[in-house]
Amino acid sequence: MNKEKKKYIIVFIITVGIFLGVFALVEFLDSKKRESISSLQRSITMDLIASETQFELLKNTPCKAIGGSILSRQLGDLGEKLSYAEETQGIKKEEIIELKKYYSLLQVKDYLLSEEVAQKCNIDIASIIYFYEQDCPNCIKQGYVLNELKRKYPWLRIYSFDLNLDFSILETFSGLYEITEDAPIIIIGDKKYSGFKSVEEVEAYIPDITFKKELEKIKLASKVFLEQDEKFSVIKDITFVSYEGDKIFYTYKDEKGTLKDLVLQFNREKNTFSYN
Amino acid sequence: MDYFFYVFLFITLYFEIFLLISFFEKDEEQNKGTLLSEDYLTVTIMVPCFNEETTVLRTIHSLKDLEYPKEKLKIMIIDDGSTDNTWSVIQVFKNDPQIVLIQKENEGSKFAALNHALEYIDSDLVGVLDADSWVSPNALTEYMYFFRDPEVMATIPSMVIAEPDSILRKAQKAEYDVGLFARKAFANINAIYITPGPFSVFRKYVFDTLGPYKEAHHTEDAEIALRMQKNFYKIAYSERSVVYTVGPKHLRPLIKQRVRWVYGFIKNVFDYRGLFFKKEYKELGSIILPLGIFRVFITVVLFPLSMWLIIIPWIKYFKKIAIVGYNPEFSWTFDWFYVHFDQVQIFSVIGIFLVIFTMWVGRELIGDKRKYTIDILYMFIMYTFIAPLWLIKSSWNALWSKKETWR
What we know:
The complex is a heterodimer of chains A (276) and B (407). By secondary structure, chain A is of the alpha+beta class.
């Protein structure tokens, strides 16, 4: 073989090598992604079954034992990864669709379970149900808003569903909310909102957030009130305990160091406090 | 579409690796030893000018400053019917024994001016130097090491953009530095297919045997080189002979120049397609000419693509900020899941590294040790936003044989 031919072949081998290397690297990264997603799925499924079982077992025990711990926290993580994978096409389209179906199923199950817990234990679990579509510019914007809310309020449960997904459970679920409008649609409590909503708008729709915001305000105001009141200048260790209606409960230590309760009554009309 | 793209990518990568390997092939140790006085051949340098009153003096002075025996170097200035003061400006050399002044009527092409001058020349070597370029003092002497080989019929220099004073010129500087790499690689496998206007020097024998310059799609410097290759005339590259040239300062002239080059390249290569895949033309016929066009395309497809891939995430990021405001959040938890590459992105990165690397080795050739310069960025920007314009236009013109005017 002459020198030239040898060179052509060597260059060819190097080029093929680089090509194979690149494709193998991408395949490796993608397989890691699939692995990560399926392990997340497994652990969420596990969490859900565990929660259900725990719930069944503890049916007659006080709700305190269940608390907020029953619900899987990894669901949001999975959703984020799926949407990233979908965006970057890191995983094949057909696979993504299957994964999204499974994700939707997990979300519905999680939602139902959390509703049940909320009802039985009489606690409030703030959740947003979000329906979106493919090729909908407003949905991308709405997605940013919901991600921002998730970041601001980690306790908020956001369930998102792709209306284009051909999946019977999803159809039944969206049927419950009689969806006829174009996406984006968000459902909070039993209210339905369609069209793009900004961060501030969505915040205003969530009672928990407005409530908590108000609480924060009143808490702050009551603290200022206590600091300014002469009677309380001698006492120490004023600690906020809880809030109920317009009553704010504190504890404090008197001169002898004994722990005592203090109840502040907030007067909404006058915007002042009184105490017992 | 995907497969088409990968085939295209494969060929491009093959070509680049082929050049890289050729570049590092051991080159013949030609320029060793000292030159004897008979090694200094008689030379005539032709300087065609058309309305170059501002630059021609610098060009002529650089030729006069060449470290070369005065009695063996003649400078022939051809005023190609300039309408400005070129003719009166060059009159200062009227009585210079080294310099010959010729005035002729403009015929609208450079090759006519060169052929006109060729008729007066009887030296061993004939060179060309465009009136917007100037040479380093050692340039011609370095050539003589190559001309000691009787097979070498022409020698070309290292072209460098002089004193880049605008972004566009800085971009061209980086581009020319990459060109030095390619030139060396081509030279190593005896596949130089262009003898550029700035300071290519031929044996007079070339014109005596192959005939004068020809009308060749306004790129007679490519045609003569291909004609030489066709006749197995060897073209050498003297990397230490540096020639400075000025690139177009503004966008429109730059595009016009490039459209002419690319169009001329496509048409000339097509005219000389007889060289393709012939055993006797070796690498030139099997790889360089048939695939040369891919080198033009690498920049036009891969650059915009990779730039686009870099820009997209930023657009998304700013869209997001516009909606939810700027809330920086620093997290130390790092999830590999969010590191995403696809094949095209990786190839783009490989491509960019290849370009930067070849620029470095190109600079090494002329003793320029700079590595990270802003020129690189400018070049990437030029190739992303401007190169597609000239490529599309010249391909279109080539397809329909629409000629660009020379000036």
